[in-house]
């Protein structure tokens, strides 16, 4: 009695009766395979004695200790019970005596949830089959722990011990294991990663399409982003996803067993199709009139077009349907028209023959080109801009320039790039200058200006001093629909600390105070955008600006910056980068691993990782604050008439001992070169002293002793080399 049995028609016809099966049961060694085939015959279930016969067979199998056939018959009885309710089994009565003799398996019945209302009989049997298959060396998969190998089973405690990738010797109860584990074979993706990593690496390199199929076969259908997450983040077998997927897609496009959806949110699936682009496909393609469907099928054909275009029936069908798309698209279907033109271009079809000029004239009408860009996915934008540039370039340039204020921010960025490629860069620059000069343009243009502020600075379109105010003026108005969305995007940029640091960091302290003063005036009125929130961010980045808010006059105040050498500034920036890119992500992974260990209240690893997270975040805030306030310098041109940061001083003690020190920035220190920080106690005591002055300084025992300033000089070349890093 097995799952994989021959069809009933293959059994002896005389056996497919209750009488025939009873006769077979009289043998001391019945042919259980034949009996199993016979029981599956639909006509047998109409016999009134069928239920008694099944019960007799179940009892006989149990008495002989036939475990696997007994469980298989139970599964069949559950399936038959829909038509013959009398055959529905009592799982507890059948399974308990069957498994009670073995010290390990006797725990199975109580672990599969037969007595629980939320566990169906079919699910209970599925769990039982999982437990029956568990044995040392068996491969399995768990959603939390991943791939594992069974190490041992403990019948006394009802537990199974498994070596998972993330944790060896992990114990599970039979109840949990039966419900959570999935048995896998040696060809499963997770098994290959654990047991044959070199083979998996070779598939990534040489057989990307086969690896995608293996992933779908092992883990089931999934959208492309989930596939990427599995291969790149979870399994870490693919490093360059774009190169891998480009190579895999080429192979999958011509594979009849793979189904690649048009949308990223839909699932990639394995199918049983045996052929592709055959005669039936061509005929169905010729009859299709849905433009979206046609374009999807053309994209599937595109990868193997070089092979298929030599077939006259395929080439003629493709040319006919592409012509149908181009000539049949209306003004409202500008995106379909654009995709049709792009498809004709990419397949090498004759555009003049496809469309004698209608499409080109259509794109010159107001709003058509902009509408196509808005409706099309981003991947079509750049190719379309390049394509229409080959139409009537002068007229197309005039049309594009006129519609710039109404374009979305992403479209505008590509249009600027495209017009540069058309050789019309000067015209688009003048157009944007004219739009920004009046301070009366769209938030989409403001968004582009904010994202490309370095280009704007290079073009001398808007002085950097006026850029924040310019954006605020535009964003303080009320918008709707697409323009409201563009305004929100521009506002996000304006409120971004990194952007503020980059733009405002190029100004002098006095210039920043001037910007703050203008923002202060704007905050007094009613604004849609949170001007005060922007001012708060600026104060965090540049604390000296707080004086502008507390000052009652209009004159910008000055403040001393925290000076340091370029070397120390670079070192501090490196510390922040390492903290953000390495230490904090590593801590986040530690927290995730610790959380998986169980009860967080008594989880030392979790508490320790969370405490470390707090320290790392505090350190990050300190470094960001330090870097926001610091200014790098080479200390050149510092006067030597008195001791100051950027000077080397020689002092003599009363006992004749002479010391040399070089005062540099707040973060500078090097004992070999006698460099001391300007914030150190010794530097602060010496600061401002002249040659011949007597200064009280601490000795090794922290006692204040007198010393005389003998000389003040500029730093040596060795120290300057150190400062340069």
Features:
725 residues; alpha+beta; Helix Hairpins; five-stranded antiparallel β-sheet; 37 helices; 15 strands; 54% helix; 10% strand
Widest sheet: strand order? Answer: 4-3-2-1-5
Query: How many helices in DSSP terms?
Result: 37
How would you classify the helix and strand content by structural class? alpha+beta
- The share of residues in extended strands comes to 5-15%
Which shape, going by the Cα principal axes? flat
Uncertain regions spanning at least 5 consecutive residues: 2-12, 554-560
Q: How many β-strand stretches? A: 15
Task: Specify the biggest β-sheet.
Answer: 5 strands, antiparallel
Cα(first) to Cα(last) distance is 80 Å
Percent of residues in helical segments?
40-55%
The Cα radius of gyration reads 39 Å
Mean model confidence by pLDDT = 81
Structure at a glance:
Among the domains are: 8-130, no CATH class; 189-270, no CATH class; 562-633, Transcription elongation factor, GreA/GreB, N-terminal domain (Helix Hairpins, Orthogonal Bundle), CATH 1.10.287; 647-724, Transcription elongation factor, GreA/GreB, C-terminal domain (Chitinase A, domain 3, Roll), CATH 3.10.50. Helices cover 54% and strands 10% of the residues. The chain contains 37 helices and 15 strands.
